[in-house]
Amino acid sequence: MSMDEADEASWDFGPEDESRAVAQAVGRQLKLWREEAGMRPAEFGEAMGYGPNLIYKIERGARIPRPEFLDKADGILGAGGKIAAMKEDVKRARYPKKVRELADWEAKAVELGAYGSHNLHGLLQTEEYARALFEMRRPAYSPDEVSREVGARMARQSIFGRTPTPALMFVQEEVTLRRPIGGTMVLHRQLEHLLAVGQLRSVEIQVMPTDREDHAGMGGEIEVMKFGDGSVVGRPDDQFASRLIANPKENRLLELRYGIIRAQALTPRESLAFIEKVLGET
User: Fold this and answer.
1) pTM of structure
2) Which residues, at least 6 apart from 137, have a Cβ–Cβ distance to it below 8 Å?
3) Which of 4, 199, 236, 253 is the most buried (most CB within 10 A)?
């Protein structure tokens, strides 16, 4: 089995990832269905288009099967939809733990405010822009890690389709609109996407011009989430821990800083016009 084959059919795990238990349960069910169908691992692998080594890994829970793998296995083993139904079980397990936790908070938020200084916020990124970002990480991510991270980032964007829709506010440094992450055409499409998202009634995008003399965001990126019960969770710039803060005193400081950043940035209407201008120059 080649590495490309494994990446195509399944995901690997990050260190100390408790989602392994989900993969082990799914793997046991797959093995039971395969044995019930009277197929050996090599026969099942051939029917699936993969080598037996990958089948062994998935059945013992060493890798998380992709949704399309489960769909195909369901048909080959005659499971009548029971294997395909496990897609919901692996849906969250396939993403890194830190992303699952962040997505849980974002899914509950009634208001989200974020300031980005180096690249566009994950909720605003196109898939190709996100992939380019993860591919340039150092130390380098493996292709499997890139795939998991990109998939998780795209899944988080389901927040735009929530009902009721939360209020989503973003402040982006001007440089994030100009840095050609992934190349000029990737940036061009990303800016078009940004303009489309900015038209949503629940979304406000603001730009912080580079020539601003007063800037409250010099301490780094910020994300502040507010919930229906009035509680607040903050996420300051921390590349190593990406920690979430629930301490009221610390969050009041983050809210204060974010409010000043918004006041110093261009208005949402001015910002969309600015993004259109940059798009025309790209």
Assistant:
1) 0.76
2) none
3) 236
